[in-house]
Amino acid sequence: MIPIYQKLLRPILFKLDAEIAHEQSVRILSLLSKSMLVRRTLHSLVGFHSQNKNSSVDCMGLHFRNRIGQAAGLDKNGLFPGISEALGFGHVEVGTVTPIAQEGNEKPRLFRFPNSSALINRMGFNNYGVYSLVKNIEKYYPKKIRKVPLGINIGKGKATPIENALEDYIEGYKAVATTADYITINISSPNTPNLRMLQDVSYLEPLLKGFMEVRKFRSEESGLSNPPCLVKISPDEPLALVDNIVGLILDNGFDGVIACNTSVESPKEWQGKSIPKGGISGRPIEKKSTEIIRFINKLTNGKLLIIGSGGIHDLESAQRKLDVGASLLQIYSSMVYRGPLWPSMLGKRIPLAKGW
C-alpha cells in the first residue's frame, strides 16, 4: 500500500494546492468515519498491522496499543478520529482547538517540500471552535467505543490578549475534560501572534498554576477524575529556557511534555533559498527535536513523560527519539509523504516501551 500511495495516489494529491488536498482528504475521512461498518472493515484490513504484544505500553494511567500517535493539526476539528484509530494509530490527538471558531491566517498557508520530506504551515489555529469539536467526538467517537486514547489539544484564540490567555485555556479545559482521555496545552505554535511569549517564565508560571488550580477545583467540586494534562513546547528555545519551562511543568504537577512543535528556524539545507514564513515540520527538524528530548530526559532523570514529535520519517528516526527518552511518538508530515498505512507499519515495528 505504501508503494501504491507513493507511486499513484501521492502524485495526484500533490498536483493540488497543499491545503486543498488536505481539505479534500479531511472531507473523505470525515464521511468514512461516520460509518461504523467502514471503520470496522478498515480496521480488519489495516489496523491489524499495528497489533504487536511487544509494542504496547501503559502511560499516564492509559493503555496504548503501540507508541505511534497522530499529532495535532491533522484533524483540527475531531472529524475522523475513528478512521485514525482504524489506520493503526496507538493514540490520536485532535485540535488545536480554541474557545470560539476562527478562520486562521490568510492563504496560502500550507506548503510542501518533497525533496526534504517537509511541510511549512502558518495556519493559525483555524478551527470550528471547541464546542463543535466536542459535539463531533461525542457523536461519532465517544469513550465507550474507543480502542485507543484520544487527546485534545487546546490553544489561545488569536484575538485574545496574551494577558488573558489563561481564560481561553480554562474554557477549553472545561469544555473537553469529560471527553478527552488526555489534554495538551499548546503554548508553542509559531503561527498565532505572541503565543510563544507564554513560554517565558513571567507568563508561564501564572498560566500553569492557574490552570492546575481550576483543574483541582473541578475535581473537588464534581468528584470527577481529571484527564492527564501535557504541555507542548517549541524546539527553537535556548536550553536555559527549556530548563525553566520543564521546571514549571514539574512544579505544577503536569503529566508530561510533547517535544516538539514546528520550528521557525530554517535548516542549513535551505539556506539561501526563498522560504515561506511559518512552522517547519518533517525531516529537517528531526535532529533538533531529538536533542530537546535528550535534554529534557537528562534534566529530569527520566522522571517526566515525553511524547516525541518532529521529523519522524522512518524507523530509524523514530528509534532515535525512543533511545534518548521519548516513551510515545507522534507523526504528521510523514503521513503526507508515506501514506495511510504508515502509522500501522511503524507502530508494529518499534519495540516495547517503558511504562509510566
Rg over CA atoms, rounded to whole Å, is: 19 Å
Largest sheet: 8 strands, parallel, barrel
Number of helices: 12
Predict the CATH topology. TIM Barrel
The assigned structural class equals: alpha/beta
Strand content: 15-25%
CATH class term: Alpha Beta
Give the rounded overall mean pLDDT. Answer: 93
Total domains = 1
| CATH 2nd-level architecture | Alpha-Beta Barrel
Helix content: 25-40%
Please state the overall shape, judged from the principal axes of the Cα atoms. globular
Strands side by side in the biggest sheet: 3-4-7-8-9-10-12-13
End-to-end gap = 34 Å
Detail the poorly predicted runs. Answer: 352-356
Walk me through the structure.
The chain is of the alpha/beta class and 356 residues long. The chain has a single domain (2-349), classed as Aldolase class I (TIM Barrel). 39% of the residues lie in helices and 16% in strands. The protein has helices at 2-13, 18-33, 36-45, 81-86, 130-140, 165-176, 201-222, 239-251, 286-299, 315-323, 333-338, 342-349, and strands at 57-59, 62-64, 68-70, 91-97, 110-113, 118-121, 150-154, 182-186, 229-233, 256-259, 279-282, 305-309, 328-331. An eight-stranded parallel β-barrel has the order 3-4-7-8-9-10-12-13, surrounded by five helices. Strands 5-6-11 form a three-stranded antiparallel sheet, with no helix packed on it. Strands 1-2 form a two-stranded antiparallel ribbon. Strand 1 (57-59) and strand 2 (62-64) form a beta hairpin. Helix 6 packs parallel to helix 7 (201-222), helix 7 (201-222) runs parallel beside helix 8 and helix 8 packs across helix 9 (286-299). The longest helix has 22 residues, at 201-222.
